Amino acid sequence: MTAARCFKHGEVVQDAVAVGAIERMTGPPFMVYACAPCIETHRILLLDDHPADSVGNVRYRRGERETTSTS
Ligand SMILES: [Zn+2]
Q1: pLDDT value at position 13?
Q2: How far is the CA of 38 from the centre of ligand 1 (A)?
Q3: What share of the chain is helix, strand, coil (3-state, %, to 5)?
Q4: DSSP per-residue letters across 22-56
Q5: Ligand 1 centroid vs 18 CA: distance in angstroms?
Q6: Residue 24 — φ and ψ, nearest 5°?
Q7: What's the gap in Å between 69 CA and the centre of ligand 1?
Q8: Please, which residues have CB less than 5 A from ligand 1, an ion?
Q9: For residue 71, what pLDDT is reported?
C-alpha cells in the first residue's frame, strides 16, 4: 500500500494506487495516485493496466472520456 494524495479528491489516502506516471525533463516521472473509490467512480485505468504505448497520462476505461493528450 502507498500513502499518497489522490489526484481526484485531493486528500492523502493510505491505499493509493498509481494511475499515471508523467514524464519530466529531469528526474523520475511524476507519479499520479488515486484512491480505490475514485478509481471505481471515475473508471480510472490503473497504471499497471496501461497499454504499452502509454506515455503515462491518466487514462480512463472504455465508456468514459479519453484524456490522451495530443499536444
Ligand atoms: Zn480519491
Answers
A1: 97
A2: 4
A3: 15, 35, 50
A4: E--SSSS-EEEEE-HHHHHHHTEEPGGG--TT--S
A5: 12
A6: -120, 165
A7: 22
A8: 6, 8-9, 35, 38
A9: 46
> What is the CA(1)–ligand 1 centre distance, in A?
15
Amino acid occupying residue 26: T
- The pLDDT tens digits along the chain (71 residues) read 789 999 999 999 999 999 999 988 999 999 999 999 999 999 999 999 998 888 899 999 976 455 555 54
Task: Please give the distance, rounded to the nearest whole angstrom, from the Cα atom of residue 61 to the centre of ligand 1.
Answer: 16
